[in-house]
């Protein structure tokens, strides 16, 4: 638009017309432009405050003056400022100074300066201490009303009482007694100091914040503002609601971590009868590799891990600004987060990427070369001269700098290594030159000669070189790069951050710098050519004020959001962290001691003594508030000593400077004994139901001992910690290797189950599952079979092995009878069910469940197998009697060995492999789709593709690779996929500059293009579809078709100008999916809308078709059609101007996405298959008819086969997909079994007699019914029969589904139906917490659930469009909910 305007402005006629326009029109146009420009600020998801009125909103920012502001505080103050400005209200800046021993006047000053740096202007400034008198009166008011009491209970005992929910001995003291003790507190007597004042709320509450919280305590320290006027001080939780109310705060913004305290906040307000502010919770800011706790940040400062609160590695406001972050970038980043409540962990990369966009247009360019690895270059025929050039090639307003040119220049050593004679290179900001000589010392280039070819202006294919003239006034510089203080990206709840800080985080490179660098001042931001962005931390000085000598320019690297900041120059070489402070001098900095050299005579103990002494000196200097530079130099000496110690010993110096005692020699036997003892200790703690933290600590010790054993012996310790009996090792055999693998699978499986049972973090479970899957794959590669359940080798006749005395003793303890244990398990299961049905207390149910699980564990230890499900013992015995026998020599195993209703997982595995649908692949979770399966997908694809093209949808293809920045652009949407994203990190043997994701879905791939394509409402609608593959790296149990790491699908993405058109398409596409299942696959589905919990992340609503698998009693999602609303179009700016000009604001597109996957093939197998094999619906079968000639002999062979081929040709011309099986090396009976297993709808048998009578014998696969048909009009008869087969298969599946589709309003019936393999329609309130409770409380604990099913409890499947009744007349089916229902919802166990 600007180019067009510029173009037409060049015409005289246009300029004249513009001048002739009325002044008012031009003025209005100018204001409109200014307004539009002002409204282009990028914002986050801000929520309108409840009850907010223009001009009346009052918000507050109440920090505690106990440290510097970090960027979490920055988010808080900027959000408050946003609402202050949006509603033209007031912002109160209030210091929370309720704790005198943490309050620091210096920090108050620093915080106010930080707030000013963020351009935040407050209207009112106050301290909580201004209201101490009023708060004291309110506390006495609670005492007099009987709502508070003074408690002298020991703090440790008080904590235990609160955990046990027991009343304090002082809770029911009289008001008079409480007032007497309160006076002791106010006077600060010795007894008073042992007391605290507690609010009398509810000691039985599930909310710990309501269990009589402390509201006043005594402090000896004088207060910075009130001195010694008070001896007792209020807690923040008590003071905050009072001061908020008194100061007129209308809306108190707090992070969601305070949500549990909201009830406490309002309790104080209500009991005191004061004005009630609104509380609005927003998500706290979490960043990777970062802690934002003031206590933890102070620990880093106090222990010398950083140089101070403004260290560039620190997340404080001053720290990030010192590292080169601009205030504008910080504000933009914070504002972008908005006031949403969803909590996620942000990457620093996004912040630094925003920062780069701001500094790149204004950062002047300079040059610097690595001092330790440059190569001297001679440029022939060039005279020494100085020219003035622009500091920024694209921004001349920044000014100019002097650049030196001459015969001698320096280039990077790494650049020089790639030069060869006669090569043309480009010297940046100079011109092209030819390499006329390369001097080497061995393989290393030591010198280069160049000849200018400045008339050659072809720069496209030349190597670009950064260079620096070798002149006397080049200045020394030091580039400082920083790594994350914490090595782990996201700390878990139980992680100790101190375990992740033992790594080097500051690196330095000495540089030879451009003379123009001498003009830099502290805080100037620049770009060093091909090195990155830097901020000047200390300017170059020719005469240091400390030493009188040269002090180099210190430049701190500014991250730019990429993984690698120096792609073409040598990597930053690690150096001592404070080398940046080294002046080129011999005079020591005041306060620093000379670094003692580590001579041969000086051992580790001497170095430790020096480290201890220097550490004491540093602490003394900090305590005495010495000069910062002096402290920094002293810290440098300390770190240098620690480095010498590590170089000498290979270890970090121990805390306290004490040399570690020499480690005693440990034998494997000693370790095994320790492992056995530690294992007993862990088991005892678990049996005693000790605290989780205590158990975890002991388990960590046990794992450490096992690791030590493996490091020493190269093997895992044997179960029980007992050394294996020694014997002469026989020659290795495949059988022994297989048994070893089975043992490893058993151990690893047990580890995985243990991790899942204690709800370990995904980062622990995922790798453990990976190891287990790898072991199973190794077993299958070795034996050609799947590993048996539990990792136990199948029993087979073999000579009884010789057992050691130890083994005999071990097995003699297992004298229980498996049958007795089964009876006990059944009885205990009945007790659990009875307790749940009667609504027993959770603790009582837990005891019963624990006993049940113990019995099951005993059974498994005794038999090596899981116990049978309740009521199935007789079936199990019958199944064992009917177990398939091993085939005799010469026989095949063509048929299935498992029955669908008895062992569905094994049946499914055999069906898809023996019917030649699937071939297993050597990457776990990935499978080969053979033609028999792919043909089904092709028929679905052809039908659906034709239908969507009728709607105007076009096919396209977008790349499968997604950049990291694009994938993370829509956090809410990608959050569900994040653990499953597969990343490409290498190209050959080289690391990629940025990891590239393989698409888990394509929204973030396609929508940036949509944004560039849509400029006007005329560009809409866009309706695109692509047939492609996606990758989701599932960690759960993979199943072919149903849950795989790579699968095929179609994904449609559309954008409309108005919502009605978009919503209409959602339902149109859903109907097509319904037809795919009904008209192609003969499977009934339920159409409906997903609940809020189950809808597509980032969408407005999701519609679905849900199928039912009768053999497992589980539902399965068939396909989904989503209305995304404007959520994505706003994120990716898919916008256009209002065509009706009702508003000047841009309008955003309304979007949909919809998808169908190869999961459909798995659904077909499980719904229609039987104990013989596949049963394929005729309309998707690769072959609908197979012709098998029977009774063939040498005399009639040719004639019979020719007759069969004629019939096949006739059927094929009629549109029937037919296959003739004319193989002579298989019998007719074998062929019958083969094609029955493959599920061909019709088998046609033709023998000599049939040929004579001009008829055929047909067998339906779905019913196995036989019939005879005449050859005349056979094509019409077969086509009619195929339609009949389809309809019959559909009716059979529909009857099975309807027989297991129940409606109830009773929770007891709901659970009973669920356990009887039914899917249930029940009234539901729609609340997400209620839905989670339904899923949790409906899970079965009395039986082992199919491991292949990911959800044990009832999951909401959809809200059916066809409702069985008026749900609004009912209560929610979940008995503890009590809310009125909104609709009947379909629940069930689901794949």
3D structure, described in words:
The protein is α+β, with helices and mostly antiparallel strands. Helices cover about 35% and strands about 20% of the residues. The chain has 39 helices and 50 strands. The strands form 12 sheets. An 11-stranded mixed β-sheet has the order 30-34-35-41-38-37-36-49-50-48-47, with helices on both faces. Helix 10 links the parallel strand 8 and strand 9 (about 280). Helix 13 (about 325-335) crosses helix 14. The model is unreliable at about 30-45, about 565-600, about 725-735, about 795-815, about 870-890 and about 1340-1350 (pLDDT under 50).
Biggest sheet, strands in spatial order? Answer: 30-34-35-41-38-37-36-49-50-48-47
Contiguous uncertain segments of 5+ residues: 31-43, 564-602, 724-736, 794-815, 871-891, 1341-1351
The amount of beta strand, in percent, is 15-25%
From the spread of the alpha carbons, the general shape counts as globular
Report how far the terminal alpha carbons are from each other: 53 Å
| Count of DSSP-assigned helices | 39
Q: Which class best fits the helix and strand makeup? A: alpha+beta
Major β-sheet annotation: 11 strands, mixed
Taking Cα atoms only, what radius of gyration do you get, to the nearest Å?
A: 39 Å
> How many extended strands?
50
Relative helix content? 25-40%
Overall pLDDT confidence? 81
Topology overview:
Blueprint (H helix, E strand, L loop, with lengths): L1 H7 L3 H9 L2 H16 L19 E4 L9 H16 L3 E6 L9 H13 L6 E4 L4 H14 L2 E4 L3 H10 L10 H13 L8 E4 L14 E5 L13 E3 L1 H11 L4 E5 L6 H11 L5 E5 L3 E2 L6 H9 L14 H6 L4 H11 L7 E2 L1 H12 L5 E2 L1 E3 L3 E6 L5 E6 L9 E6 L2 E5 H4 L7 E4 L3 E11 L2 E9 L10 E3 L1 E3 L5 E8 L23 E8 L11 E4 L3 E7 L14 E6 L45 H20 L4 H22 L18 H20 L4 H22 L20 H24 L4 H22 L21 H8 L5 H20 L4 H22 L9 H9 L22 H11 L3 E3 L6 E3 L1 H20 L3 E2 L5 E3 H4 L3 H4 L7 E6 L2 E9 L4 H11 L8 E10 L14 E11 L2 H22 L5 E4 L11 E9 L4 E12 L1 H6 L2 E2 L10 E2 L1 E8 L1 H10 L16 E5 L7 H17 L4 E3 L7 H11 L3 E5 L1 H6 ...
Parallel strand pairs: 1-2, 2-3, 8-9, 10-11, 12-25, 14-20, 18-21, 23-27, 30-34, 42-43, 42-44, 47-48
Antiparallel strand pairs: 4-5, 5-6, 6-7, 13-24, 14-17, 15-16, 17-22, 18-19, 19-20, 23-24, 25-26, 26-27, 28-29, 31-33, 32-33, 34-35, 35-41, 36-37, 36-49, 37-38, 38-41, 39-40, 44-45, 45-46, 48-50, 49-50
């Amino acid at each position: 638009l600007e180019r067009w305007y510029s173009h037409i402005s060049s015409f005289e006629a246009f300029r004249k017309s513009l001048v002739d326009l009325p002044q008012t029109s031009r003025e209005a146009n100018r204001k409109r432009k200014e307004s539009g420009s002002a409204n282009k600020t990028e914002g986050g998801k801000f929520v309108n405050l409840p009850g907010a009125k223009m001009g009346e909103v009052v918000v507050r920012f109440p920090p505690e003056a106990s440290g510097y502001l970090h960027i979490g505080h920055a988010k808080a103050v900027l959000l408050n400022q946003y609402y202050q400005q949006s509603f033209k209200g007031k912002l109160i800046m209030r210091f929370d100074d309720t704790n005198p021993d943490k309050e620091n006047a210096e920090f108050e000053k620093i915080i106010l300066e930080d707030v000013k740096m963020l351009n935040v202007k407050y209207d009112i400034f106050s301290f909580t201490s201004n209201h101490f008198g009023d708060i004291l009166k309110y506390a006495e008011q609670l005492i007099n009303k009987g709502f508070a009491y003074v408690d002298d209970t020991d703090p440790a005992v008080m904590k235990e009482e609160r955990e046990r929910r027991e009343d304090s001995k002082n809770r029911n003291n009289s008001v008079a007694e409480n007032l007497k003790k309160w006076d002791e507190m106010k006077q600060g007597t010795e007894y008073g100091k042992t007391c605290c004042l507690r609010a009398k709320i509810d000691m039985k509450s599930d909310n710990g914040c309501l269990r009589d919280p402390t509201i006043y305590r005594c402090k000896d320290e004088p207060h910075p503002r009130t001195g010694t006027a008070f001896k007792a001080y209020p807690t923040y939780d008590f003071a905050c609601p009072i001061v908020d109310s008194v100061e007129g705060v209308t809306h108190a913004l707090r992070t969601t971590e305070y949500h549990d305290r909201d009830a406490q906040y309002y309790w104080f307000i209500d009991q005191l009868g004061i004005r009630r502010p609104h509380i609005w919770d927003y998500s706290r800011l979490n960043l990777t590799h970062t802690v934002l706790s003031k206590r933890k940040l102070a620990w880093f400062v106090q222990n010398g891990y950083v140089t101070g609160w403004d260290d560039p590695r620190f997340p404080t406001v001053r720290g990030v600004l010192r590292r080169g972050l601009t205030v504008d970038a910080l504000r933009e980043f914070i504002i972008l987060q908005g006031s949403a409540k969803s909590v996620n962990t942000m990457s620093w990369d996004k912040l630094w990427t925003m920062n780069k966009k701001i500094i790149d247009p204004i950062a002047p360019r300079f040059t610097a070369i690595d001092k330790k690895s440059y190569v001297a270059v001679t440029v022939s025929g060039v005279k020494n001269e100085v020219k003035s050039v622009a500091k920024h090639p694209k921004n001349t307003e920044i000014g100019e700098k002097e650049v030196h040119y001459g015969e001698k220049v320096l280039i990077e050593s790494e650049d020089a290594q790639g030069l060869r004679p006669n090569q043309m290179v480009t010297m940046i900001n100079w011109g092209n030159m030819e390499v006329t000589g390369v001097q080497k010392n061995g393989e290393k280039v030591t010198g280069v000669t160049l000849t200018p070819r400045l008339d050659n202006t072809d720069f496209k294919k030349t190597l670009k070189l950064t260079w620096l003239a070798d002149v006397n006034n080049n200045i020394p510089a030091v580039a400082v790069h920083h790594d994350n203080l914490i090595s782990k990206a996201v700390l878990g709840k139980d992680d100790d951050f101190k375990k992740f800080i033992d790594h080097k985080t500051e690196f330095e490179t000495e540089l030879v710098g451009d003379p123009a660098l001498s003009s830099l001042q502290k805080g100037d931001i620049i770009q060093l050519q091909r090195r990155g962005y830097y901020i000047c931390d200390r300017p170059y000085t020719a005469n240091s004020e400390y030493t009188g000598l040269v002090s180099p320019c210190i430049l701190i690297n500014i991250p730019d959001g990429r993984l690698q900041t120096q792609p073409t120059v040598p990597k930053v070489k690690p150096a001592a962290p404070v080398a940046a402070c080294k002046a080129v001098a011999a005079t020591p900095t005041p306060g620093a001691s000379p670094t003692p050299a580590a001579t041969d005579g000086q051992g580790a103990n001497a170095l430790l003594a020096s480290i201890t002494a220097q550490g004491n000196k540093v602490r003394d200097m900090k305590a005495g508030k010495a000069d910062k530079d002096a402290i920094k130099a002293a810290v440098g000496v300390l770190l240098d000593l620690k480095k010498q110690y590590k170089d000498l010993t290979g270890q970090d110096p121990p805390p306290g400077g004490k040399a570690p005692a020499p480690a005693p020699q440990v034998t494997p036997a000693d370790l095994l004994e320790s492992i056995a003892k530690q294992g007993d200790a862990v088991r005892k703690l678990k049996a005693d139901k000790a605290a989780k933290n205590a158990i975890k600590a002991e388990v960590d010790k046990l794992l450490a001992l096992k690791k030590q054993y493996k490091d020493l012996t190269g093997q895992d310790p044997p179960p029980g910690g007992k050394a294996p009996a020694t014997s002469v090792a026989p020659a290795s055999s495949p059988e022994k290797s297989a048994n070893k693998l089975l043992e490893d699978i058993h151990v690893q499986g047990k580890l995985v189950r243990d991790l899942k049972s204690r709800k370990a973090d995904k980062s622990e479970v995922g790798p453990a599952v990976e190891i287990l899957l790898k072991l199973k794959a190794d077993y299958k590669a070795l034996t050609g079979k799947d590993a048996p359940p539990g990792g136990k080798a199948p029993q087979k006749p073999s000579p009884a092995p010789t057992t050691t005395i130890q083994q005999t003793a071990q097995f003699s303890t297992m004298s229980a009878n498996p049958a007795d244990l089964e009876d006990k398990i059944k009885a205990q299961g009945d007790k659990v069910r009875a307790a749940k049905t009667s609504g027993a207390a959770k603790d009582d149910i837990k005891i019963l469940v624990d006993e049940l699980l113990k019995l099951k564990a005993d059974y498994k230890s005794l038999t090596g197998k899981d116990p049978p499900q309740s009521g199935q013992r007789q079936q199990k015995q019958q199944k064992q009697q009917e177990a398939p026998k091993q085939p005799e020599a010469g026989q095949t195993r063509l048929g299935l060995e498992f029955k669908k209703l008895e062992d569905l997982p094994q049946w499914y595995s055999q069906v898809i492999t023996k019917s030649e649908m699937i071939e297993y692949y050597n990457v776990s979770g990935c499978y080969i789709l053979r033609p028999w399966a792919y043909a089904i997908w092709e028929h679905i694809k052809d039908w659906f593709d034709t239908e969507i093209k009728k709607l105007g949808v076009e096919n396209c293809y977008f790349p499968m690779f997604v950049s990291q920045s694009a994938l993370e652009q829509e956090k809410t949407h990608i959050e569900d996929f994040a653990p499953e994203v597969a990343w490409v990190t290498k190209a050959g043997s080289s690391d990629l500059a940025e990891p590239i994701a393989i698409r888990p879905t394509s929204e973030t791939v396609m929508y940036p293009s949509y944004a560039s394509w849509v400029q006007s409402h005329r560009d809409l609608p866009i309706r695109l579809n692509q047939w492609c593959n996606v990758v989701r790296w599932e960690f759960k149990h993979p199943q072919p078709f149903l849950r795989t790491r790579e699968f095929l699908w179609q994904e449609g993405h559309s954008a409309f100008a108005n919502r009605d058109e978009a919503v209409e398409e959602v339902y149109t596409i859903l109907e097509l999916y319904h037809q795919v299942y009904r008209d192609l696959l003969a499977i009934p589905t339920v159409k409906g809308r997903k609940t809020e919990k189950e809808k597509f992340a980032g969408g407005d609503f999701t519609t679905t078709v849900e199928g039912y698998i009768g053999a497992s009693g589980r539902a399965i999602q068939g396909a989904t059609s989503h209305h995304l609303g404007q959520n994505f179009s706003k994120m990716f700016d898919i916008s256009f101007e209002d065509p009706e000009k009702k508003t000047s604001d841009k309008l955003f597109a309304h979007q949909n996405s919809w998808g169908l996957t190869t999961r459909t093939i798995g659904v077909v197998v499980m719904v229609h298959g039987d104990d013989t094999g596949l049963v394929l619906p005729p309309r998707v079968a690769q072959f609908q008819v197979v012709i098998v000639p029977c009774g063939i002999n040498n005399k009639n062979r040719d004639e019979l086969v020719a007759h069969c081929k004629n019939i096949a040709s006739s059927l094929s011309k009629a549109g029937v997909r037919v296959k003739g099986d004319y193989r002579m090396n298989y019998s007719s009976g074998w062929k019958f079994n083969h094609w029955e297993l493959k599920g061909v709808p019709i088998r046609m048998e033709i023998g000599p007699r049939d040929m004579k009578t001009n008829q055929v014998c047909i067998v339906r696969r779905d019913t196995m019914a036989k019939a005879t048909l005449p050859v005349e009009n056979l094509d019409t008869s077969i086509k009619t029969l195929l339609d009949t087969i389809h309809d019959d298969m559909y009716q059979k599946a529909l009857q099975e589904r309807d027989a297991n589709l129940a409606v109830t309003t009773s929770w007891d019936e709901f659970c009973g139906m669920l356990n009887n393999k039914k899917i249930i329609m029940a009234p539901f309130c729609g609340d997400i917490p209620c839905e989670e409770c339904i899923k949790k409380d409906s899970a079965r604990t009395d039986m082992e659930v199919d491991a292949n099913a990911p959800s044990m409890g009832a999951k909401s499947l959809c809200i059916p469009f066809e409702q069985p009744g008026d749900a609004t007349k009912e209560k929610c089916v979940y008995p503890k909910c009590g809310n009125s229902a909104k609709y009947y919802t379909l629940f069930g166990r689901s794949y």
